[in-house]
Each structure stands twice: as C-alpha cells, then as structure tokens.
Specification:
Structural class: mainly alpha
Number of helices: 5
Largest sheet: none
Radius of gyration: 14 Å
Strand content: under 5%
Shape: globular
Distance between the termini: 18 Å
C-alpha cells in the first residue's frame, strides 16, 4: 500500500514504477538518467551542484564494486551530475543487468545520503522522486 512514510516505497529503487516489463537496456538507461536529473533538481538547491556531484560520484564508485561496468559512468568531475557516461554504460549492458545496476546505484545513493543526514531527512528530500516512481505504472498522476 501507499503509506505516507512506508519505508518500503522510499528505500526501494525508483525504477520500479517507471519501467514496463521487458524494457530494453536503452529504455532503462534513459529512465535512470531522467531520475538522476530529478534527484539533482531536488537536492542541488540544498547541497549545491558540487555536493550533489560528489554524492553521485561516490555512489557510482561504491556500486561499481558489484557492477564494475558502472565505473565507466564515473567521469571524476566534481562540478555537476553528468548522466551521459552513465546512460552509455547502462545501454551497453543487457536490460536485466542495466536495471540491476541502476537499482543498486539508487540504493547506494540512498544509503549514502541516509548516513549523512539521517533516514527521516533523506526520505523527505527524495520523497518527490520516489513518490513519482511508485505511482508511475498505470495511473501516473492520480492525486494532483
């Protein structure tokens, strides 16, 4: 169900409600890239572009331990989130691996942000992105 602060909907990957079954690796890459831009839009006014880029790059670095091909998405820039390399890395995988890597990346980011500011604030900061994802499958904007 859609509880107000149901931990399940917040900590699970925002990909869940945005991808149709059988989505291609390219579709996964585009969706992951779009979600990262939403996260950047939500957080950069609070932590700045460089702060957001640092969290994004650290999340990529952590996730690349289990998904080494994600290292190609890390450009080493600390000035802004650039999803072009990430999208390219995702699109070059199978759809299942792209989805798994994208989900793991979001979970790493969520965990990292939680370790820095706490679970409650992380949930509030990311609520709009995760909420959008939870209801995106069949009825996209049910409560305007």
């Amino acid at each position: 169900m859609n509880a107000q602060h149901g931990k399940e909907s917040v900590t699970s990957s925002p990909l869940g409600g945005r991808l149709v079954e059988g989505a291609s690796a390219g579709q996964v890459a585009d969706t992951v890239g779009a979600i990262w831009l939403e996260i950047d839009d939500a957080l950069h006014p609070i932590i700045g572009r460089r702060g957001m880029a640092a969290l994004y790059n650290r999340s990529l670095s952590l996730t690349a331990a289990a998904h080494p091909w994600l290292a190609a998405g890390y450009e080493g820039t600390l000035s802004a989130v650039d999803t072009a390399a990430l999208k390219s890395a995702l699109a070059s995988q199978t759809a299942a691996e792209a989805r798994a890597g994208g989900s793991a990346l979001f979970q790493s980011f969520h965990g990292l942000l939680t370790s820095l500011v706490g679970a409650s604030l992380t949930d509030r900061l990311l609520h709009s992105v995760w909420k959008h994802s939870a209801g995106a499958s069949s009825a996209q904007d049910t409560n305007s």
